[in-house]
Batch of 2 targets.
Target 1
Amino acid sequence: MVTQTEKLNSLITDYFEKEQKLGAQLPEWMKELRQQGLSRFNELGIPTIKNEEWKYTNLSSLAERKFYIPEPQPFKELGELHEYLDPAEINVVFVNGDFHPKLSNLTDLPKGVSIVNLTTASAPGIQPFETHIREYQQKFSDPFAALNDAITHGGVLVKIDEKTVLKRLIHIVHVTCVPKENAILSPRTLIVLGKSAQAEVLETYMSCTPVGYFTNALTDIFLEENSVLRYTKAQNEGRQAYHIGTTRIFQKRDSLSENFSMTTGGMLTRNNLMIILENSGANTFLNGLYAVQGEQHVDNHTCVDHQAPNATSNQYYKGILNGNSHAVFNGKIFVKRIAQQTNSYQLNKNLLLGKGARVDTKPQLEIFADDVKCTHGATIGQLNEDELFYLETRGIHRELAVRMLCRGFVDDILNRISNPSVVAKLNKMLAPSFETFK
Amino acid sequence: MLAIKNLHAEINGTPIIKGMNLTINPGEIHAIMGPNGSGKSTLAKIIAGHPDYQVTEGSIEYEVNFKKINLLELQPEERAREGIFLAFQYPVEIPGVNTSVFLRAAFNAICRHQGAEEMDPIEFDEYLKSKMKFLDMDEKCLNRPVNVDFSGGEKKRNEILQMAVLNPRLAVLDETDSGLDIDSLRVVADGVNRLKRKDNAILVITHYQRLLNYIVPDFVHILIDGKIVRSEGKELALKVEEKGYDWLAQ
Ligand SMILES: Nc1ncnc2c1ncn2[C@@H]1O[C@H](COP(=O)(O)OP(=O)(O)O)[C@@H](O)[C@H]1O
Ligand SMILES: [Mg+2]
């Protein structure tokens, strides 16, 4: 047992002690999950840049740290969180990686909608999904999903029943408020949409203490036949935070997912977004925006796994890089031999504002079917001087001219989100970045 | 109002303007004609403050409210705020920037500088529509990105709309007539003439005499190879139309 936890013990100082304390009362399926996660993480460890998947994102500073698992906190002060919480929406609040029902408003959920702690959810209701994920996970060597499994002691299950069309936004807010640095947080969310169900979810990450910590988030999503999910992730954590987030979306026949991923915060961010199109007629949109500055590093790894014919995926990521920031975009498109008539598009556009800013962008196509439409492209450029001059000759100060052009660049992608409340929240998070543009 | 003295300018080390003198007084309309490549647009951009051109010799003095300003020291936006306007030969398309938002930002920037009241979006909308009426412009343009998917004629009208909105003291119109059919030309020229006052001035740059039938200049200057080779009254434009530029080239 001790040798098995070797890698975890060197990363997390109090793992063994916490494991005993937190693990004891958990349901059997979760204990099993933790065991599997533990041994998987011990096999894999923290990847280095020699690993092709991590070539441009160096985790050596993370690997050197010693993290601790924070105690569950009686957190009452919402502070600036209030600005983001709209009582008309369904708010699901996590504090320091743990689901916090008291801060959430789940009292009058519409019919067909349930939101509960994963530990209290009925095991038979969850197990098929967990088993499905585990089988899929075997194919990949994803140490951070395994790490989340190993540490998890709760999380949230969001379940939308068959044919339920939920109009209210579900806003899952992750707040980090830790007393001292080097906490490791492992929030976990499972979202299941039944046949022909529809919902919109926004997942926001933010922090109220400017210390270094590590969020290792995991969100798994199942979309049954004909269901529709709009899912936005907004990472606006403090500038000392490590954020590694994995989102996996399993889609059945004729389902649709419209995804948006925005990164403004964090010192080092890695967003893994995997979409698995399991049956024909499944469609997905992956849109994203990153606006980073200073020494920030943001890495978006998307992977669309076309397993069945007649499915489409459409990716469009844009980034503005100020200061010495560094962005990575890696878009993997995998088309199985039987996945004929796949349509897959990918575009990544980068605007470099800072002299020291840098982008590594690359598509990664693995196509085994022959009747496939697949296009990809990437651009890295600066603001257009002719456009700036034109605006300046109209009396517009250069700084404002720069912001107007950046606004246009950003709106082009934000306009793809149809919910004005989501757009407003994202714009609020973007505002401090805009102030640095000149 | 504007005094250009012995101006020499180059781009990337290539001299383009080679000793130019020009004086424009309030209330006057000046025309500059000249063959392609003679430096007309270069002059226009230098007046507006384009950063790519280096002035190597000479000066441009601009007089506003009895105050003389060394124009070459000002940033492009400062020149605009002092009342200088350039209608571009090739108006720039700006994807992502909404035309009415752009126009209001420009208008308010200049108002703020000149100590006039800024307008809120509703007031500005009224103001804008009143200016658009006599330019016979489609209001739909306002909700589109600046100049994007505008026809050639719409782009030129949009330049004059900006002139109407910003109400400059010195307007430089660079080939505003090119690409316009005769009806559009009349509308645009009529728009410019309405904006003419005793205390402002216009510098019309054109390749053809045609426009000068509608915007009648007080002086016509011929620019060849970066120098003004002749300055006369409006009849000079007709002579050029008839005989070309070769006889002036000596
Ligand atoms: N970026 C540049 N680099 C070098 N030469 C240029 C550049 N832009 C313009 N020129 C040259 O400057 C000269 C004047 O151009 P321009 O002012 O546009 O002429 P006009 O408007 O009279 O037709 C032309 O010979 C042109 O080739
Ligand atoms: Mg020209």
Target 2
Amino acid sequence: MHSFWVDLFVAIIKISVILGIALGIGAFLTWVERKVAAHIQRRPGPMVVGWHGLLQPLADGVKLLTKEDLFPRYGDKFLYHLAIILALVPATLVFSVVPFGPEFEIFGYKVKPILSDVNVGLLLVFALGSMAVYAVALAGWASNSKYPLIASMRKAGVLVSYEVVITFAVMGPIILAGTLSTYEIVEKQVEQKLWYIWLQPIAFVVYMFAALAEMGRVPFDVQEAEAELVTGFTVEYGGMKFGLFPLVEWYIEGLTLSAIAVVLFFGGWSPINIPFVGFVDPLFFLGPLSPFVWFILKTTALFLFILWLHWTLPRYRIDQITQSAWKIMLPLTLFNIVITAVLAPIVWR
Amino acid sequence: MIKKVATKPLSWLERIFFIDFVRGLKITLKNAFRKTITTHYPYEKITPPKRFRGFFAHKVVDGTEPQPAFQEWVNRYNIQVEYGKSRCVVCLRCKRACPVPQLFEIEGKKLPNGKRVVSVFNMNMLLCTYCGFCVDACPVDCLYQTDIHETASYTRKDFILTLEILEQIGKDWQMRRGNEPDRIWIDDEQRMKLWYENDVKLPKPEGV
Ligand code: SF4
Ligand code: SF4
């Protein structure tokens, strides 16, 4: 009985930490994005509200919250609001299987810094990821307007193709690790002294492409396409309802997909890896905190890389996107799985 | 006839290693760490170029009129020239050149000595497109555009430029910038530098 209350307490703490990260950092990332975008174009970005515009997300939030809440005539109110929930909840839920660091002991209790170490964690990630299709399709349909409908159909097309690709892409690391649990995949990488990126460069590149497509980032932002579709399926949403979609799509999903990429390909919380030899940790002086710092550092680096790509590349056409998914990425991943299956025994030893 | 220019297709090496992506990323990375060139507008202001197309003004008679044209026009229209007053000879060419019919309101009056002088000259800036046709049309270099560009106001009345305002702006501008040589940017070093950095090398046209 005693341990039940402790478990509950620990779970509540974990949930609040994760929610804090997802929503707090998510909002703050809007500022990061604007700064990165600005500097790439030789502008300073937001500068006025707070030190270097640091309080800009707050100001934006207040502005969005105080806006008039418009609803399109003949729209479907139930689906309209359901779409918001369907977008926000699954994206945030993915955080529950992201391992932030190794198990540690506090007051005699063992705590794993992962909300729920389910043994099919990765499956959960991609199942929840697929839910995004519903959010997008419903948002477009319920708005009763032509631009959102076109945008949501485009996005649904992109998502459906890349869901397949991303699932096949992560098959490689899964074969090497022999498990679907995110926590154990990282442990396996530490055990085998190998980041899977070294053996899975193809899978990583394909994963990155698919991740960009899922987040709706350049070069796959056809669903947004400011020039043709205004802002895609969010056209008819107003105020904070409008703010939630990019927050979820660009920042929360961006964070989770970067974190999952770090878990799968960059050894989660492990320090810099020399394949098959061991790990070098320049941050050893941080002691038990070092794994967490490494995880955060790697995720940040990956997220910044995505931003960098976003503000560099032009946009693909919808037919080019689906074509590359089915004709190039899918065969590549299948090829990769075969190679991995051959290589796997060397890694298992 | 349309000349077909084929772009070189990507080689396999370029496709596999995303060479074109990498090139683009290199450029954006380089720019990301360069100094920003923004002017922080309400806190910093740069002087517009001398030929900026802003609010209008009338040049006043001060001895710098284009001669002999000015004298000829004065004689033709029998104008009373007064030092320090508008050069306008009431020819209405600016009104005719303007694409907006109701923008100008110009009237002249006859003095007791038989000569004429401009008495009313109103411009409604709310209608103006700042195209500058009226400036081109003016035969005596009277009407011209100045560097005044922060014109936002709470009342429509402020957008009517009367003869007095035009003359006043003109005098002020002559004093501030009359002797300045024409240049693009005078107090923005970053932009100055960009201007020189940007030496476009165009290929020589064929058959020259
Ligand atoms: S700038 Fe063009 S629109 Fe404005 S007053 Fe002159 S001619 Fe008319
Ligand atoms: S064109 Fe010049 S001189 Fe003629 S009325 Fe207009 S401002 Fe006066």
